[in-house]
Amino acid sequence: RAAERLEQNAGLFKERGLPVEPDPTILNGPTAIAQALRAKQVDAIAIPVDEYSKLLEELDPRLFIAGLNEGQITEEYVLLVHQDSAIQRVEDLRGRSVGCWQNSRMSLGLVWLDTVLVQGGFPRAREFCRVKQINKLSQAVLPVFFRQADACVVTRRGFKNMGELNPQVGQRLKVLATSPALVPSGFCFRRGYDDPLRETIVAELGKIKSSPDGTQVLTLFQSGSLEAHPVACLDSALALLATHARLCGETNQVLAFETKVPAVRADGGGN
User: What does the pLDDT read at residue 22?
Assistant: First the structure.
């Protein structure tokens, strides 16, 4: 779906004078992505940070283009339970139903929950709870509100929005645990891509929110706009992933969604 949207919005790049070719090829997993980057088959990718962490040697270490929501490039995840629930601590989740909202802003949600549990001396989420991934925010939150599910993991911003729509949701649900502020996903260039077009792309990506076609591209990032930052903006997310790998084992890492990375080729004289 992401690649299709890039292909459909090729006109957005052309109207801004950018000779960019959206490539609808789907790259599944870090091995395929690394091969494409090394071969210079793609110059930039949209990627969740869990996959970014496995490709550090292949990606530009200078900047990361992240999506903003309400002026923030980060998300906080919250573990919600009902105020009247018997669940008072994370260890009380044993055998309970936990809905995890699934979208690009939630790419580290299960990684965080895993880490909270394992640091407490318990198994990972899928071994400790009955985890269900849910595509819609309301379908993650409302079953907890109506006592049809025991808990859910969503963004703090999502919980706030649900509470604004229905104040009783904010009153009857409580936060059992909160993650650090994390950058979940974004857009970056391959290592060694220094074509002059690079800086133009960075500048224009920051302006696309003013275009109708641009707002469609922004849905790739579940964001209102894009903004370039030093790679240090990923420090908290990369630290979480490193802790998860140490505690849980890299081969057992739980991903919040299947990675299908849309690739972009910028034909401005570079390869």
Answer: 56
